[in-house]
From TrEMBL:
Keywords from the named record: NADP, Oxidoreductase, Pantothenate biosynthesis
Lineage, broadest ranks: Bacteria, Bacillati, Actinomycetota, Actinomycetes, Kitasatosporales
A Pfam family of this chain: ApbA
Ketopantoate reductase C-terminal domain segment(s): 179-300
Family to which this protein belongs: Belongs to the ketopantoate reductase family.
Protein name, as recorded: 2-dehydropantoate 2-reductase
Catalytic activity: (R)-pantoate + NADP(+) = 2-dehydropantoate + NADPH + H(+)
Signal peptide interval: none
GO biological process terms, semicolon-separated: pantothenate biosynthetic process
Molecular functions (GO terms): 2-dehydropantoate 2-reductase activity
Annotated Gene Ontology cellular component terms: cytoplasm
This enzyme's EC code(s): 1.1.1.169
Coiled coil: none
Ketopantoate reductase N-terminal domain segment(s): 4-153
Length: 312
């Protein structure tokens, strides 16, 4: 499938770079500065001391407008504040048979994208731990990754199978979900909980678990996020809740989240998309969320110090 990766940051650069290495036909929609960087330096993925340079094909929005052939697959890997701009930019890349898969965290983007691209859209979740570094390279902090995709109505179609085959890259688990909306909510509960704990503790899940009352704090924070999901009609199954409970209280765990990594590196965070939206839904459904609110306040204060423009 001819694939367009939208945004060559921590997610798009990593997934797209691995797809190129696996021999897929991939272009990267990037802004002019990133295009220049990728042409000069190539895309670099760094794991520990190992750095791999990958020759990639960047394309800017102006050049994309000239494209006559739509892409088969478009992977959206920008942050929410860039979504409306890229939705305009990809118009010429999306034809009647194009499939779009978003990897953004949270749920707000789904409504926006469905309104614009309707049936072209699949749901998606991605679990990797990567970040752009100061050289513009992509650092992977934990090995492997998981991708879940699915039709929003839960049906099993040939196009979803084809996308899954295209995304099958080494060290990645790729699964087709019969309930991708539920899977996205589950990931949202996870990322909000891990993001809140690790941002407030300024450390890893393991660091927080080792603090006095750390495990209890993590348990109650998970309870808040899971209760909002349940009140919104997307309650976690008992095994899913138990697995998350283990994940967020794991002693010795090196897990962080993109929220806390960005907090630590002085970059603006996606607080509104990951925590703000969940808090708003908590208020709307009468679920108290004091720990999520405390984390959001910390991250909003950080954003105010580190951004000149609001996130959304
Ligand atoms: N990092 C992670 O481990 C994970 C992140 N996610 C989610 O994935 C999404 C993307 O995050 P992440 O990759 O970390 O973010 P990054 O900031 O690393 O990457 C976003 C990229 O989007 C690019 N971009 C911004 N505007 C445009 C535009 N108009 N056209 C083309 N490119 C553009 C930026 O490029 P530039 O500014 O250089 O132009 C940047 O390289 C987020 O919603 C995040 O929550 C999901 C799973 C894991
Ligand atoms: C899976 C996880 C928690 C990895 O960092 C993530 O999605 C994120 O940080 O945004």
């Amino acid at each position: 499938m001819k694939t367009l990766i939208v945004g060559a940051g921590a997610v798009g650069g990593f997934v797209g770079g691995r797809l190129v290495q696996a021999g897929r036909e991939v272009d990267f929609l990037v802004r002019p500065g990133r295009a220049e960087h990728l042409r000069q330096r190539g895309l670099h993925i760094v794991e520990g001391n190992r750095s791999e340079g990958i020759a990639v094909n960047p394309i800017t929005a102006d050049a994309l407008k000239e494209t006559e052939e739509p892409y088969d697959l478009v992977l959206l890997s920008v942050k929410p504040d860039a979504l409306s701009a890229v939705m305009d930019d990809i118009t010429s890349a999306v034809g009647s048979a194009t499939v779009l898969v978003p990897f953004l965290n949270g749920m707000a983007h789904l409504e926006e994208l469905t309104g614009r691209f309707g049936k072209s859209l699949l749901g998606g979740t991605l679990r990797i731990v990567t970040q752009l570094d100061d050289n513009g390279d992509i650092r992977q902090y934990l090995p492997g990754g998981q991708i879940e995709i699915g039709e929003l109505d839960g049906s099993r179609t040939s196009r979803v199978e084809e996308v899954a085959r295209t995304l099958a890259i080494p060290d990645f688990d790729v699964a087709v979900s019969a309930d991708i909306v539920g899977a996205m909510w589950q990931k949202w509960v996870m990322i909000a909980t891990v993001g809140a704990i690790t941002s407030l503790a300024r450390g890893t899940i393991g660091d927080a678990a080792a603090l006095t009352d750390g495990e209890r704090f993590a348990t109650v924070t998970l309870e808040e996020a899971a209760s909002v999901a349940a009140a919104s009609g997307h309650g976690l199954s008992e095994p899913a809740h138990a697995a998350l409970q283990e994940l967020v209280t794991a002693t010795g765990s090196g897990m962080t989240s993109s929220l806390s990594r960005e907090l630590a590196s002085g970059r603006p965070t996606e607080v509104e998309n990951v925590l703000g939206d969940l808090i708003r839904r908590g208020h709307a459904t009468g679920v108290p969320v004091p720990r999520l609110e405390a984390a959001a306040l910390t991250l909003r204060a950080h954003n105010q110090r580190h951004t000149t423009a609001p996130e959304n």
